[in-house]
Amino acid sequence: MALDPRLNAYREDLADARLRGRVAASRFVEGRPARVIAGRIPVRRAPAAEAPLDTYYHYGEPVLVFEKAGGWAWCQSLKDGYIGYIDESQGAIGKPAEATHVVATMAMSATSNASRSPSAPRRIPRISSRRWAPMFTPSPI
């Protein structure tokens, strides 16, 4: 049974090292970790803007990059496994960036009004405790 080339990184000239012994290729490489730094990146079947679109990678999505050439990167999503070509200016190659800031925000939590009678006073949402979330600023390629 043949492997699906949309979900398994292999071509005649290059393949994912994890597929050694399962597919024929001139050379095998380890994918380099990367992270998507654009809101939504089109993933194409070939390294050309007019090539058919297979899916999208989304901001923050981890990917493996197997090859960079001619302004395109041949990648595999670590989220859903899809493989294709992206414009390499839209991916940050290497270790994901460390958190650079702590952002504090006040969260609102609405109390349930489902069981109140029509004559009962309305409840006003109250402010709950602070929530802290680390954020990172991706570095360019």
User: How many domains comprise the coordinates?
Assistant: 2
Outline? globular
Portion of residues within helices: under 10%
- Measured on Cα atoms, how large is the radius of gyration? 22 Å
Q: Are there runs of 5+ residues with pLDDT below 50, and where?
A: 124-128
CATH homologous superfamily placement of the largest domain? SH3 Domains
Proportion of beta-strand residues: over 45%
Look at the structure and give the mean pLDDT.
Answer: 79
CATH class of the largest domain: Mainly Beta
Element pattern in H and E:
EEEEEEEEEEE
* Number of helical regions: 0
Strand order, main sheet: write it out. Answer: 8-7-6-3-9
Distance between the termini: 38 Å
Q: Which fold name corresponds to the CATH topology of the largest domain? A: SH3 type barrels
Q: What structural category characterises the helix and strand content?
A: mainly beta
User: Biggest sheet, in brief?
Assistant: 5 strands, antiparallel
Question: Per CATH, which architecture of the largest domain?
Answer: Roll
Number of strands: 11
